[in-house]
Amino acid sequence: MNTPLELLLLSVLLYLAGALGSLLLARRDSLAILCSGVTGLLGGVVGVVASLPILLSGATQRFVTDGPFAFAHFAVRLDPLAALMVFVISALVAVCSLYATAYVREYAGRGAWAMGFFMNLFVASMVALVVSDNAFYFLIFFEMMSLASYFLVIFDQHEEAVSAGFLYFLIAHAGSVLIMAAFFILYSHSGNLDFDSFRALHLTGPMASLVFLLAFVGFGAKAGMVPLHSWLPRAHPAAPSHASALMSGVMVKIGVFGIIKVGIDLLGATASWWGLLVLAVGAISAVLGVLYALAEKDLKRLLAYSTVENVGLILMGVGAGMVGIAAHLPLLAAIGLLAAFYHLLNHAAFKGLLFLGAGAILYRTHTKDMDQLGGLAIRMPWTAGAFLIGAMAICALPPLNGFVSEWFTYQALFSMGGASDIFLRLAGPVGMVMLALTGALAAACFVKAYGLSFSGLPRSAHAEHAQEAPLPMVIAMLLLAALIVLCGVGAAWVSPVMATVAASLTHSAAAPVAIGHTLFPGDPGQAHLSIPLVTVLLLALPMLPMLLVAGLRGARLGRRHGGDAWACGYAQEQAMVPSAAGFAAQPLGQMFAPLYRVRDTLDPGSVSRRAVQWCIEATTRLEPLWDAKVVQGVVEGVQWSGRKIQHLQHGDFRVYCLYVVATLVVLLLVAV
Predict the structure, then answer these.
(1) Entry pTM
(2) In Å, how far are 264, 420, 558, 568 from 328, measured between CA atoms?
(3) Contact present, 155 and 110 (Cβ < 8 Å)
(4) What's the CA gap between 114 and 29, in Å, rounded?
(5) Which of 389, 391, 383, 385 minimizes the C-alpha distance to 357?
(6) Distances in Å between the alpha carbon of 251 and those of 247, 281, 483?
(7) Helix axis angle, 330-365 to 252-260, nearest 10°
């Protein structure tokens, strides 16, 4: 097999073989874990190899056959956008599969074979979905992905997991209904379910806007954008950690992929307000997501809310790109989509790493509560180092990958200032303010997450006796940490690839980004940036004071091995240890209290509880009203009738005989 499509088929077959092998080895959990992990690892590697030729060349390969159903062709399209999704999915799956060979041992004897089955089916459906070029099969694989991930969410079967899974199931399938409606409208106009027929339709006007809105809300529910995010901070922490990494790192991107697929690829992003809507929702999601993350003390729930934030950042880039396409601003379109695609890759890397790090902590300490952690940097040094790289990347600190994609997002928003439309010129600065606020809050959030988990004194016996995670888990985390560094330092090589993906959607030449030391050579309106130079400076500057001190003292600086935790120059005591509720969260919680009240008010659990309470109160009010106006009226009517009928009973035998005679006369008259 040499062509990318053939390799992609092999990758999917490996995932399906892993699912089948897990089923056949149901009574041998250890072998089922190994089978699932090895096939997932091999499938991920083959998927990466399959996607690279398309990403590097910008070519498109398509395969069409009749398939089992006469009304729908089985069409597969591997274009640069699909290849990017396959690469991101495959790379993270390969790492998570390696991680799972050790992590899933905790589930041995508790149905680990079922986890392997649903995990491989989940991955296979995602890969098949992103290359599907027919609406019918797209929806089939979308449902397979949702159902497989649902069973991963409820795998532990405790009350919170089942409740979270039910909420996820409802929101995911409500979104599916809207997506079906959007595709049905396109089908009713084109007469065909192939995406090529949708592209050729060139639908415009109100009907196109209706299709976009249906798809935006439907796919937005899967992406976890505000206000459709409520399932995400409950479902992701409930799933096993490597499943959480895949759900947060790649599954939510399927929602973003769907918005791009319908809004840009199929409809052509013909209206500027579509992009402004995506940009606005993205900005709100980014700010609220990180605000809600900051208030959490559950580490995995914090990371889940952070996913809402990062989905918002990706949508800001997508929105800017859609505005550029609609307003015929090719530079804005190129930079916006470039920023979105770069952050899509970056988020998969650092959020996958952070969830795997949280899983390693859970594996050794059996808790996600940051108030029960602390002091893990000494006890789990490799996990602490990898988690620190992920935390720095998600805070957009140079020279790591998060800085590069957010830099491009700033550039896209800055470019909106050159538009002639007043709304576009206002949207750019507002978006930059929201992005800056998000960055500041993200830094506070992950200083809290890392500080409470790894620094200070251990705050529980489990944390005090924790050990480093098993070797496969450590290697998996280090691989993602290396990818984060490479995507940051190697921005000059990664950016042109993302520009090629963006060009495939804008139908223009790829922007000459990141050549030499500039991002956009020849364009005086864009700032210049050299990530390698930034890296050298960041490495060199901290060393200068150390060299000066060493030279002045005439002695080598000693290295400190371990030791007690300290604060402000004093040995730290337990009373000095901050808590998750007080560490940066308390002042910000007071400052943004109305936004937290909005979250509590709109939370589906809170809404359902209020609905039940309203029903009880309404029933309580209705019951006496029914008794007073209906039941009591009937009772009084019966009593009045009884009193009137009592006059017929006099106690005189002769009167009773008269009644009998009168009755007989009436019956004779009726009979005649």
Answers:
(1) 0.82
(2) 13, 11, 60, 56
(3) no
(4) 9
(5) 383
(6) 5, 19, 19
(7) 170
Residue 314, C-beta contacts closer than 8 angstroms, at least 6 positions apart? 253, 256, 282, 340, 343, 344, 347
Rounded to 5°, the CA angle 190-195-197 comes to 35
Angle between helices 80-103 and 491-506 (to 10 degrees): 130
The pLDDT assigned to 353 comes to: 95
Name the burial class of residue 267, with classes exposed (0-12), middle (13-18) and buried (19+) by CB atoms within 10 angstroms of its CB.
buried
Count CB neighbours of 469 within 10 A. 25
pLDDT in tens, 253-283: 999 999 999 999 999 888 989 999 999 999 9
Length of the chain, please? 672
* Nearest residue to 243 (alpha-carbon basis) of 348, 330, 327, 352: 352
Neighbours of 296 (CB within 10 A): 24
Residue 327 is classified by DSSP as: T
Please report the pLDDT score of residue 615 as a whole number: 58
Going by pLDDT thresholds of 50, 70 and 90, the confidence category of residue 163 is confident
Report residue 582 as tokens. Answer: 């007080």
Q: What single letter denotes the amino acid at residue 583?
A: F
| Residues 592-601: tens digit of each pLDDT | 556 556 655 5
Residues 6+ apart with CB under 8 A from 35: 18, 21, 22, 25, 116
Helices (H), 134-204: 135-153, 159-190, 195-201
Cβ(460)–Cβ(367) under 8 Å?
yes
Q: Which of 502, 290, 537 is nearest to 411 (CA)?
A: 502
> How far, in Å, CA of 575 to CA of 553, rounded?
37
